[in-house]
Amino acid sequence: MLVLSWTVLVWTLTVLCALCVALLLATVAVRVGRGVLARRREALVAQVRPLVLEVLTAEDDEVAPACEKVAAVPEPLWPTAERYVLAAFDSVRGEVRDALVQVLLDRGTLARAVAATTARSAVRRARAAEVVGLVGHVDGRRSIVRLLSDPSVEVRTVAARALGQLGDPHVAALLLGALRPGSDVPASIVGTALIGIGEADTTALEPALEGALADRDEIVRLTAVAVAAELLVLPTARYVGERVLHDPSPAVRVQAARALARLGGAWAVPTLASATAPTEDPGVRLAAARTLLDMGTPTALDHLAPLRDDLDPDLRRLALEAGPTLTTEGAGP
Fold first, then answer.
1. CATH code, domain with 332
2. DSSP letter string over 266-316?
3. For residue 296, with 0-12 CB atoms within 10 Å meaning exposed, 13-18 middle and 19 or more buried, which class applies?
4. 281 within some domain
């Protein structure tokens, strides 16, 4: 029995030693393999980096020849060159960007990205949406719109950002719809996307924003007010003014009151003055008073005079900041 126990112990120790050696060899092999791959990647990067940098630093008549060199990169080098080109898109504009877009189109980057929007992996779908947005080509719009209803919130978020990069005003209503309950796309992402779309021309955004200002969802209305004010979409100003007094959400009413500092004019003063009434929500009153003060016109400031004796100390302070009003200046002894 003792001999058997020693035999088992020796075999156990032998197996454990063999396993330790195998693990050690595997670790060394992995590290060596990683080093080889890293050196191989560095060698590939060293071949393509100068070509991409030449495009980024090219003068007007040098852009086309530099892009031709990138387009002619051999197939084994193309994945590395493609990553470099895509990484450069945030810093290029105008003719250089257009030329690089054409290179990517010719090399099939957009086609592969559009195909990947239906991949099983959420990571691949998100990356595909990001690439389509970076390339900024409307041919991929339909695929990205479909991803707004993707099962993954990460994919939906990247898709919303990508649609903003495409700059197509026809998707504005769809972007606003992505804010409704259940989507979980951050309002900041949708707002930024809409601002990106409207930077060139706000006219096409007007119908979508007007519809969103009457939407049943609070987040949709809040985003529409913020975008309208940021882009100075003046045709929506009256609709924003209506939100100040009649929206069921105090948050929307506050946002609308502040937005009138950019969108409003003399016509908005009575609305803002009504919003400072004692029966209104305290936050709305404060926002309306601040906007009247920011307007700075005699008529707007005059409406702050009754607030000097208000129970709210913040309102009293704003009224005092307004200084003498037309009413007090014109009053007799």
1. 1.25.10.10
2. GGGHHHHHHHTSTTS-HHHHHHHHHHHHHH--HHHHHTTGGGGG-S-HHHH
3. exposed
4. yes
Residue linked to tokens 């084994």: 76
The answer to the question of residue 109 being in a domain is no
- Return the amino acid letter for 209: L
Structure tokens at 103: 């290179």
Taking only the tens place, the pLDDT of each residue in 37-52 is 555 555 555 566 777 7
**Cβ 196 vs Cβ 165: under 8 Å:** yes
Give the torsion sign (CA, 213, 219, 222, 226): negative
Contact 103, 70 (CB under 8 A): yes
* Cα distance between residue 52 and residue 46, in whole Å: 11
Which residue ranges in the chain fall short of pLDDT 50? Answer: 1-2, 326-333
Tell which residue, 187, 269, 274, has the closest CA to residue 226.
187
Residue 69: CB partners within 8 Å, gap ≥ 6?
51, 54
On whether residue 293 sits in a domain, the answer given is: yes
Task: Give the global pTM.
Answer: 0.77
Q: How many whole angstroms separate alpha carbon 137 and alpha carbon 112?
A: 13
Number of domains in the chain: 1
Looking at the domain assignment, is residue 273 inside a domain?
A: yes
Q: Encoding tokens for residue 293?
A: 């003060």
Long-range CB pairs of 77-80 (<8 Å, 24+ gap) are: 77/44, 77/47, 77/48, 78/107, 80/41, 80/44, 80/45, 80/47, 80/48
SS3 135: helix
Dihedral of alpha carbons 174, 176, 179, 180, sign = negative
Q: d(Cα 29, Cα 25) in Å, to the nearest integer?
A: 6
Give pLDDT tens digits for 152-204.
999 999 999 999 988 888 889 999 999 988 888 999 999 999 998 888 788 88
